Amino acid sequence: MLHCPQCGSTRIYLIAGGFTGYRYHCKACDYEGVLVVTTPTLDEEQEDGRES
Ligand SMILES: [Zn+2]
After folding, report:
1. Exposed, middle or buried by CB within 10 Å (0-12, 13-18, 19+), for 23?
2. What's the first-to-final CA gap in the chain, in angstroms?
3. Most CB contacts within 10 A, which of 4, 14, 35, 45?
4. What is the DSSP letter of 19?
5. Residue 45 clears pLDDT 60, i.e. is over it
6. What's the 30 CA to ligand 1 centre distance in angstroms?
7. Which residues pair with 32 in a beta bridge?
8. SS3 of 46, please?
């Protein structure tokens, strides 16, 4: 699961990838960059409760 490093949202979208690495865009805070936080998807599924 991808998390925005800025706001922690999981609404991260991959906008580019390949040559220079991946770039992501956060729909929640409009962050754009290569840095994302990944967490292992164990048995916790909390991405349903979206808080704006
Ligand atoms: Zn964000």
Report:
1. middle
2. 18
3. 4
4. T
5. no
6. 6
7. 25
8. coil
Q: Using an 8 Å Cβ cutoff, are 27 and 44 in contact? A: no
Distance from the alpha carbon of residue 49 to the mean position of ligand 1, in angstroms: 16
Q: How many CA atoms are closer than 13 Å to the CA of 6, on its beta-carbon side?
A: 14
Q: Find the 21 Cα to ligand 1 centroid distance in Å.
A: 19
CA–centroid distance, 37 to ligand 1, in Å, is 11
Gap from CA of 22 to ligand 1 centroid (Å):
16
CA of 9 to the centre of ligand 1 (A): 5
Banded model confidence at residue 49, pLDDT cuts 50, 70, 90: low
Dist. CA 43 → ligand 1 center (Å): 23
Output the pLDDT for position 28.
Answer: 96
